[in-house]
């Protein structure tokens, strides 16, 4: 997919912190050792395939506005191909960032579209329902 104008990562390094990256044995909530908070990925040209292949939904979808950029709301939006869930992944140090009013409204909209919407923070997760209710997943 081509780049969408205004949808560059810029200073955002949320994926380098909140996602588990098995290739580097990196857990959720720990900044990748190859990432500088001020410069981004220090091995960008030679980053592993798992990093090359990842693009968050904010970057890929025109319909997701600039106010939902991951570093601005503390939440990465992504499709989970294995479970067919629409996920809002947050830093374990801010486990309820997905409840930011703009983000929560967006997640409820996705649930109303018939998607299974799950917010994840480390090992914790919550299902978001079309009614606007949410419940911890077990």
Quickly count the helices.
Answer: 5
Average pLDDT for all residues: 91
How would you characterize the largest beta sheet?
5 strands, mixed
Report how far apart the termini are: 35 Å
Helical percentage: 10-25%
CA radius of gyration is 15 Å
Elements, N to C (H/E): HEEHHHEEHEEE
Model regions low in confidence, pLDDT < 50 over at least 5 residues: none
| Widest sheet, order of strands | 3-4-5-6-7
Coarse morphology: globular
Task: Describe what this molecule looks like in 3D.
There is one protein chain. The protein is α+β, with helices and mostly antiparallel strands and 138 residues long. It is built from 5 helices and 7 strands, in the order αββαααββαβββ. A hairpin with a 2-residue loop joins β5 and β6 (124-128). The protein is globular. The chain starts with 13 loop residues before the first helix and ends with a strand.
């Amino acid at each position: 997919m081509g780049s969408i104008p205004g949808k560059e990562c810029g200073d955002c390094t949320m994926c380098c912190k909140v996602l588990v990256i098995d290739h580097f044995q990196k857990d959720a909530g720990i900044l990748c050792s190859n990432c500088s908070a001020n410069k981004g990925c220090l091995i960008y040209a030679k980053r592993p395939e798992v990093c090359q292949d990842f693009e968050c939904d904010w970057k890929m979808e025109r319909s997701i506005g600039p106010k939902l950029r991951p570093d601005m709301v503390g939440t990465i939006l992504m499709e989970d191909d294995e479970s067919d869930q629409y996920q809002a992944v947050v830093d374990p140090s801010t486990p309820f960032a997905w409840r930011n009013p703009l983000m929560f409204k967006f997640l409820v909209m996705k649930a109303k579209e018939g998607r299974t919407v799950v917010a994840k923070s480390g090992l914790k997760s919550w299902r978001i329902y079309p009614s606007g209710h949410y419940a911890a997943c077990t």
